[in-house]
Amino acid sequence: MRRANNKVFQASLATEVGFNLPEFAITNDVTLLKHFSDQKGIIKPVAIGEITRDSSKEFVQTNLIDPSFAARNFEYSPVYLQSYIQKDFEVRLTIVGERVFPVKIHSQNNIDWRKPNNKVVYETCSIPEGIERNCFAFMELCGMRFGCFDFIVKNDIWYFLEMNANGQWAWLEFETGLNISESIIDYLTTGSTKMEP
């Protein structure tokens, strides 16, 4: 699971299976940071953006690059830089075995729908056959049977962002009525997810 969550590994797999990716760089090169900053790009952690201080935790999420921030602060800490795409909507696609649970996400926050105090609307949706095929190929290559894919969609073009090998899913079940939990239970008890929707 740790290997599957690695963003460098994921970028390689995403290219191999044929996903569209926004322009990106995983680097501590300040020249590249300036390049993405000039494009009004975004910055996010390479791994889990969790900072622990004493007994408290903070989480670093996706943000627009702040051009006023001193570039030298990145010299010793690689970050994930990405071009910003003005999306029409996002999709969280949860895969359990052979079943897919796609959810369209409409967010008031155009950078990261997980931000606090954000207004979000969820709805079930269909996905293009090619995207589903690529997701299963991706899962096969990283040896996973469960994963949560995040996409942004603009003008019917799907852009792969990441696959979370231990992604949260329960709130989607509450919001949409999708029965993800039943598929997980069935897979864990029988090893099968070939059931009618």
UniProtKB/TrEMBL annotation:
Signal peptide: none
InterPro entries for this protein: ATP-grasp_RimK-type
Domain annotation ATP-grasp fold RimK-type: ranges: 12-188
Protein known as: ATP-grasp fold RimK-type domain-containing protein
